[in-house]
Design a protein that fits this description.
There is one protein chain. The strands form three sheets. A seven-stranded antiparallel β-sheet has the order 6-7-12-8-9-10-11, with helices on both faces. A five-stranded parallel β-sheet has the order 2-3-4-1-5, with helices on both faces. A two-stranded antiparallel ribbon has the order 13-14. A hairpin with a 2-residue loop joins strand 10 and strand 11. By secondary structure, the protein is of the alpha/beta class. The protein is built from 21 helices and 14 strands. The longest helix is centred in the middle third of the chain and has 18 residues.
């Protein structure tokens, strides 16, 4: 519709994964290289993860165009399958004939035998076989285990089936579970595709316009591109949606240039109302936009209350391991079952900006972050004494497990942190873009108190938003024997501990011998989740246990409303 108006041969921002439009940022080149290395690396698993819309599928389509010769490829788009359905689908994708042998219903063996025979025959004539599974975070543990068993067929030099798993960040956390350790050990290459930087976002827009036939100046001015980055968080799919609507809006107004006002209007149409679109932004962008609309710090904090992002099932996970050198940033995805924070609705009106209290000071990146830690482990050590752990532990997360304390990492809003009401670690960015860590010890409607190296500083929420993107970590007290989120059908002493906590939260007496997670317990747990602002899914993961401990009066450190830690 608008393409001829801007001198384009076609509309440049389709969300279809067209390899012609693939913008090969350094991250995308590395992702593609990992896939190509994996397919030549002798078999096993290759893992490609990334946020929704980061370009995983497009990279995969580009990979398919460069896949080595003499290679058979099976591609599964919808992995919500049983083991039986998966094997049948794999046979169909490889065009392997199969038939049921003997009486009764078909069995797994009806598909495994011809698949194994196919792998052996094709290897004998020099063919490789690659199975690609998209949206692999939807695979169930038993299906993942069956995939592992498929890779058992091997020669002395290589495995006969190479499997590429593509999925959202939850996939990484799924493979970190103890029951999937054998599969995780067979991953020969892994890569996490991150969002684009602001500079790359501008390059991405220019690239797609050029592919679409642009021969004139870029119609998006600099403030518009900056706003697009804020609103899209650098996620290519969101960039596409926003730029497409902005070009359509400019065309409708007869304007050859897209300015910031058009981008804001487009965002309201694509992502919701003017306030709702802010709810989709990183913390820094939401605060900045709130200030532009005259909401001030209090209004910005209220806006954050509108989006208590889902954690534990999608954005957070318990970490039983040690923060390693690779984890300079907190993982931003979940591993276990849905245990989601329900969006808390908060109203914000365009009032006169409220002045921060006298105790609030600007966060000066040149001075204020000089005491911040450069490694996550140092931050865990400073947090440890609040949980009655030694401050000089060589491995805080591993040592904490002996006290039934687990390390929990997530991407959260301040609204969710207020809800959980516990001190924790924030990952910030210094002037050079490097990761640094501080402790959040207090939170008011307008300020946050940060501590590092024994030095505390109170900053305005607006200042915090400029350097914090939502990464949060803390300890949480798990019941003895806890391994993963509990749901209906779970059993053992850990379920009895859950039933006791639910009863204490209700003010009722603890049940006796409640070792089975039955429908009655699920119903009571769901009612608790509703009352405490969580998704009423009847699943007990880290955030649910945090709130249960809080309701039951378990001795844990809490955030203060002014400064410091309390117990």
């Amino acid at each position: 519709m608008y393409a001829p108006f801007f001198g384009l041969k076609q509309e440049p921002f389709s969300i279809a994964p067209d390899p012609r439009y693939l913008f090969m940022s350094e991250r995308h080149r590395e992702a593609l290289a990992h896939l190509l290395y994996g397919v030549r690396g002798g078999g096993g698993f290759v893992l490609l993860t990334g946020e929704i819309g980061a370009g995983k599928t497009t990279v995969c389509r580009c990979f398919l165009e460069q896949i080595p010769k003499r290679c058979n490829v099976a591609y599964i788009f919808n992995p919500k399958l049983t083991v039986f359905e998966l094997l049948k689908t794999v046979c169909e994708e490889f065009r392997i004939p199969y038939q049921h042998q003997g009486p009764g219903a078909p069995t797994v063996k009806d598909y495994l035998d011809p698949l194994n025979d196919f792998l052996l025959r094709t290897h004998a004539i020099g063919l490789n076989n690659v199975l690609i599974i998209d949206e692999a975070q939807n695979l169930s543990p038993d299906v993942l285990e069956q995939l592992r068993l498929l890779t058992n067929l091997e020669t002395t030099e290589r495995k006969l089936l190479q499997i590429i798993l593509i999925g959202q960040p939850e996939l990484r956390d799924m493979l970190a579970r103890p029951q999937l350790e054998q599969l995780a050990q067979r991953v020969i290459a892994r890569y996490h595709l991150k969002a684009l930087s602001e500079k790359e976002t501008s390059q991405y827009i220019r690239h797609r316009m050029a592919v679409a036939g642009m021969r004139t100046a870029l119609p998006f001015d600099r403030p518009a591109r900056h706003r697009i980055f804020q609103l899209s968080r650098g996620v290519p799919r969101r960039i596409n949606l926003l730029c497409d609507r902005a070009l359509l809006g400019a065309y409708g107004q007869g304007q050859p240039r897209v300015d910031e006002a058009i981008v804001d209007k487009a965002a309201a149409e694509v992502f919701g109302s003017a306030h709702d679109d802010d709810a989709t932004l990183p913390a820094g962008s939401r605060f900045a936009h709130a200030a532009r609309w005259g909401l001030g710090a209090a209004g910005a904090a209220a806006l954050l209350g509108m989006v208590a992002w889902a954690v534990d099932g999608r954005l957070g996970r318990p970490s039983n391991g040690t923060p390693d050198a690779q984890a300079s940033q907190f993982p931003a995805s979940a591993a276990s079952s849905p245990d989601k924070a329900r969006p808390a609705v908060a109203a914000a009106s365009a009032a006169t900006p409220a002045a921060p209290p006298a105790s609030a000071v600007s966060l000066d990146l040149r001075d204020g972050l000089k005491t911040a830690w450069r490694t996550e482990k140092e931050a865990w050590r400073e947090l440890a004494p609040a949980w009655k752990l030694a401050a000089d532990l060589p491995d805080p997360c591993a040592s904490a497990q002996r006290e039934n304390l687990l390390c929990f990492r997530t991407v959260a809003t301040l609204a969710l942190i207020r809800q959980l009401s516990r001190p924790g670690i924030l990952l910030l960015r210094d002037d050079a873009g490097q990761s640094v860590f501080v402790l959040l010890t207090a939170l008011t409607p307008q300020t946050a108190t940060l501590r590092a190296g024994g030095v505390s500083q109170t900053v305005s929420l607006l200042s915090l938003a400029k350097v914090w993107r939502g990464d949060f970590a803390t300890f949480w007290r798990a019941p003895e024997g806890y391994q993963s989120a509990l749901s209906e059908g779970s059993g053992g002493p850990v379920v009895e501990a859950l039933a006791t906590l639910v009863a204490r939260a209700d003010g009722a007496s603890a049940p006796s011998g409640a070792s089975s997670f039955n429908a009655a317990l699920k119903s009571r747990l769901a009612a608790f989740q509703v009352a405490w602002g969580l998704s009423a899914d009847g699943v007990a993961g880290p955030t649910t246990f945090m709130q249960l401990n809080r309701a039951a009066g378990v001795d844990e450190p809490r955030l203060q409303a002014d400064a410091g830690l309390v117990h």
